[in-house]
């Protein structure tokens, strides 16, 4: 329900964003006689990934990022046992991170003061617990690839961990005696016995139990008798103890323990299916978790991933699990129709979700880096859209782009920042950003701004910047001109007139000064021409005159074409005449000075 | 994340809140240097905008600089373990003033405290001098810089030193009226932005700065306008530099490249080979040839100002075992050092000099 929108009389339109949806009110068919009603003027942002904002889950994202990056760096050359051991370790690391979050969330759930949030946290705890359960099973079946003997052991541990855990979390006393029985039976020092030896041993024991039952040894005590039946793997006897078995997989493992302890992996799914059916007994239908586990027992990895994607609210789980399984070389390169494989697809989705967050986007970068097909493109698109609230954030983004030679993005981000700076009248910052991007065009823009300010105010602003341009001056011609022009003023202030004069002239003759500025430069030359001593030599004066002529010729031509206002003409003409006069006088003095014996 | 230490507690920010933690007793260290007792979150409080800088004003008060241009003093109440806002200067930094219709706030990038005074600088190139319990700024220098001011530190008490994004250090004297700096120092060549600055705890003329290219520079503000030494350090922006408050021959830097370095200039071992021969240590010395050094008659010549590369043996150690995301902030007190990273992790070491 979107507040403020009258869904009966109006329609809504929406558009997908990277992590959210924009919704607003609209009207698709405009009827001519439609009344003009005041509609809802707001645009709503609908976000799905509330998980991203949960404080505790952030730890999951951060820590798993570290594990993910470490996994990508595992040597490709290492094969066989050492590689498998490494992969198992990575899997256990992921699981321990999930457990840590679960623990913390559980603490918060207990401490929660209002029941609603308490329940929310508790449901998060059970989701995390389910995730760990599934991951653990996948680890046993797909990564550890436990062979026939130890398979049951692993499954026992798995069930024990989760049964105990769930019971502890719901503060019930663990009543099941069954787990304890296993210890004695599976006392295998050094595990030197082969599978067949084990099978034989077990067969003997089983037969003995059977004999006891048939002889009626326990007839006097119904409890002992049912215990014996249980130990023989009698399904109905087991099902009688249903309350102690919290779920069907607990039932499954118990069954296997007492009837088929040397079960092989390929046989698992038979028992799994029957256990599920027997346990549920037609009372209820399987839940999503049950389907996921069943798919795992059937060794259908793709089905597991598919079901998890549907059941879980964010991509974290499937992305990381799929990536790990991919490293175990278990996924067939299942090319999805838009070109990337499943692992990459999931990682891209997960990382895109991270980019919706104001600081977790940094984790997303590493994920994109490890998606060979589309990662780069995704990164390029996402990184340009991160809001640049502070310079520090912008610097981090730029550093990421520079490291990956994303020059287009660097230039565009620097341009945005430089433009912002110019709008805020922070010309020094603007220049700093143009230098970083090596953006000559923008540097020219900034210089023009300075020059404009000078023309308007008659003095330079931000002298600390212009005076200390250093090597940056070379970035653009306009910037060089600005620096040199300022230097001219400095020289004039220091009364080094000869140097100032030659600098001024060179600014025009070297074409570094923009034409539009020449008039200002020539006007600046006036006080030098009017000095008592002759500053400009004859040669220099000729050049100045040439410049003036170039300028005025251009002017007359344009005047003929356009037809100017009279006032402008007057001021311009006066200026030009003054200059001509000053130049002529100076020329005269210079010739005389150079002509005499002392002056040469 | 931002960190600052004051005795046993430390501050951190996460998800735009300021948090106060207790990292246990200094006295109880187990045999392997591990901690007795874990860190514990004492209290936290929401903060508007990103926390750009954080510092303890005194035992109970913390000053935070925000990306919204706001400067806030938080007060810690030890009885009920809460934090509350004690004073706030909203709009301390802005591009266009609140009077104008197109009001734009600017992030406050750095603060330095000397109770009861607080000096703040921001992206608007403005310097503010606040005093606790005074509603308005005691002194404001508008447009002190045409670029962003990244950090500020006190030199002698009425003087402060700022660094900006065009590679300049400027010294300001609050005793003087007017809006011009009393001195400007800069690197020649590229205008590399400077991000952090710290003053030597005992020698008020020695200052260290860190730049966008990861370069560490040591300056003597009394002489010349150039740095005394330039040390190539990190591969990316150096976010913070700190002299150890009681052991100033030790310097710490942290960077965007995910490393935290400990610079030890105290070693006097003659057999140690000079830095140029040490493999794996990424540092070159470009000493500024200054003959003025010989004329200094002080008995305590800072080891940081020594310009002879052969004698200069700075031992550099990287303190973080694995590469992490950017290390944004660090602080050091006694034998305890901590730092915060972009992976929302805080690393603490309490056996710094073992």
From TrEMBL, chain A:
Record's family?
Belongs to the nucleoporin Nup85 family.
Q: Name one GO biological process term.
A: mRNA export from nucleus
Gene Ontology molecular-function annotations: structural constituent of nuclear pore
Q: Per the record, GO CC terms? A: nuclear membrane; nuclear pore outer ring
Compartments where located: Nucleus, Nuclear pore complex
Per the entry, what this protein does is: Functions as a component of the nuclear pore complex (NPC).
The record's subunit annotation is: Component of the nuclear pore complex (NPC).
**One Pfam family, short name:** Nucleopor_Nup85
UniProt xrefs under InterPro entries: Nucleoporin_Nup85
Q: What is its main location?
A: nucleus
Record protein name field: Nuclear pore complex protein Nup85
Gene field: NUP85
**Looking at the keywords, is Membrane present?**
yes
Q: Does the keyword Transport apply?
A: yes
Domain of life (superkingdom):
Eukaryota
UniProt entry keywords in alphabetical sequence: Membrane, mRNA transport, Nuclear pore complex, Nucleus, Protein transport, Translocation, Transport
UniProtKB/TrEMBL annotation, chain B:
Give the Gene3D superfamilies listed for this entry: YVTN repeat-like/Quinoprotein amine dehydrogenase
Residue windows of the WD repeats: 187-229, 231-273
Q: Which PROSITE patterns does this entry report, sorted A to Z?
A: WD_REPEATS_1, WD_REPEATS_2
Q: What is its main location?
A: nucleus
**The keyword Nucleus appears for this protein:** yes
InterPro entries attached here? Answer: WD40/YVTN_repeat-like_dom_sf, WD40_repeat_CS, WD40_repeat_dom_sf, WD40_rpt
Q: Which UniProt keywords apply?
A: Nucleus, Repeat, WD repeat
Which Pfam family is one of this chain's hits? Answer: WD40
Report the GO terms under cellular component: nuclear pore outer ring
Where it sits in the cell: the answer is:
Nucleus
Q: Does the keyword Repeat apply?
A: yes
Q: What is this protein called?
A: Nucleoporin 43
Q: What is the species of this protein?
A: Sarcophilus harrisii (Tasmanian devil)
Its gene is: NUP43
